[in-house]
Amino acid sequence: MPADQIIKLVQHHLTPQTKILGIGTMMMAHNPAMIPIEKKFELVLRHFRRQRPDLKIIAGGSGAMRWARQHRNGTLFDYVFAGHAEDSTLAFLNWIYRDGPRVPFDIENGNRIVREKFAFAEIQPFNIEQCSFRWHDSDGVQPGESLPLELGRGCVFKCKFCSYPYIGKKKRDFNKSMQCVREELIDNYQRFGVTTYYMLDDTFNADQDRFNEFADMVATLPFKIRYCTYLRPDLLYAHPESIQRLKDSGLVGAYLGVETLDQAAADTIGKPWSGRHARDFVPHLVHNLWKGEVAVHLGMIAGIPPQTKASVMENNQWCLHNGLHRVSWHNLGIVRDSFEEHRSEFDVNAENYGITWTVRDGRTIWAHSECDEIEAIRWRDECVESLKPHQQIACWSLIEAANYGIDIFATRNDRRLDFNWAKINTERQLFLKNYTNSIMGV
Question: N or C: which end of the chain has fewer CB within 10 A?
């Protein structure tokens, strides 16, 4: 969607009473593929800063702190919200619209950072366990659209590279009541005809009792759903009875975080199972147990100590040889910035894992005995390039394709190179046109 169209949509909703303009920063800063999108949103926000200098421009979402480092000294945002921010946002609104207590903030890189802990006692804390979420008419949900669904927050595991919120939680913490989930699914179906979902839980199969509760609930619905989600392959291995039940409950796409097949590297990140069993189990799962009917997206990481380039390339050849639907390679990410709201074990204690810091091209990067961050990025890019001819539509892309009238069951084994992208782009533009019309009609 071009910038002038976004400006038009926002302008439609601005009134003299509007005091806040917010942006959700899902576009990750420093990702080269996202630079054109980042520039577009910078243009949009600067337009409204000039047109409506009275507006407070705020940022939240998973990339907010990265954007705050990129746009310092309040040059783009008046306030940046760290973390999930339901409570701190309400406290902020209470201040701006109702003359409540002023919300405190930290100053980092010249920006005002509002943290979750700054919410006030008079704000009813957000409780996901009883969250009866409903889409609003002004959200412009399209008939049959694929929607995100949040069953719970956090992860019972604590992988060394992971900086997500609420990692290491107990199994029953931060889980939405299954009755609330059922009511949300029914409401989405009755109002919008929605049956397809992006399941947002960090690790959907972390708690077998919880999953069985979900599967039992889905079986009571008067319609079938389909979804993609994050799964731990070691838990599928440990609980083989869940494999078919996941598929029966509507699973059509799965993101499996294997990360590495190198035993020493797997031990380093706290995933020893990947080094011992992933080579045999993952292909068996994809081709024999799920019979290719669940489009699997494998996540791999380049640069985990003590990985060598030879090890990474051998891992990549294994991916190619075993005909997986899709593989994403990432370089190991370690953030030295102590201002991040949530930090991984590597972020905090990198030196304990043989990781040091050096300066290359004017910025601080990590390094260990076998490579540094820049070298790991080269390994990643080499793997990505070699996989391009073989990649298929899987997991999140499969669920998005459903928005454009594509039969995901017929296309999940097609190569991306063979897709009719012109037709998909035409359908995407039609989807956006209908969405725009819905928004402009509110």
Answer: C
d(CA 114, CA 422): 43
Letter string b/e over residues 296-333, b meaning 16 or more CB atoms within 10 A of that residue's CB: bbbbbbbbbbbbebebbeebbebbeeeebbbbbbbbbb
Q: Which amino acid is at 147?
A: L
Please answer whether residues 182 and 221 qualify as being in contact, where contact means their C-beta atoms are separated by less than 8 angstroms.
yes
Strand partners, 357: 366
CATH class entry, domain 150-425:
alpha beta
CA distances to 19, 40, 48, 140 from 12, rounded to whole Å, are 15, 19, 13, 14
Residues 160 and 344 sit within 8 Å (Cβ to Cβ) = yes
d(CA 314, CA 178): 43
In whole angstroms, give the CA distance from residue 92 to residue 104. 9
Supply the pTM of this predicted model.
Answer: 0.90
pLDDT in tens, 37-54: 888 989 999 999 999 999
Structure tokens at 65: 């702190």
Burial of 389 (0-12, 13-18, 19+ CB in 10 A): exposed
**In the chain, what are the domain boundaries?**
3-126, 150-425
> Which run of H or of E encompasses 377?
helix 373-387
| Cα–Cα dist 27/310, whole Å | 32
Are residues 92 and 54 in contact, defined by beta-carbon separation less than 8 angstroms? no
Three-state DSSP at 59 gives strand
How far apart are the C-alpha atoms of 61 and 298, rounded to whole Å?
25
Instruction: Work out the pLDDT band at 116, boundaries 50, 70, 90.
Output: confident
Tokens at 200, concatenated: 């947002």
Contact residues for 189 (Cβ-Cβ < 8 A; gap 6+): 195, 221, 223
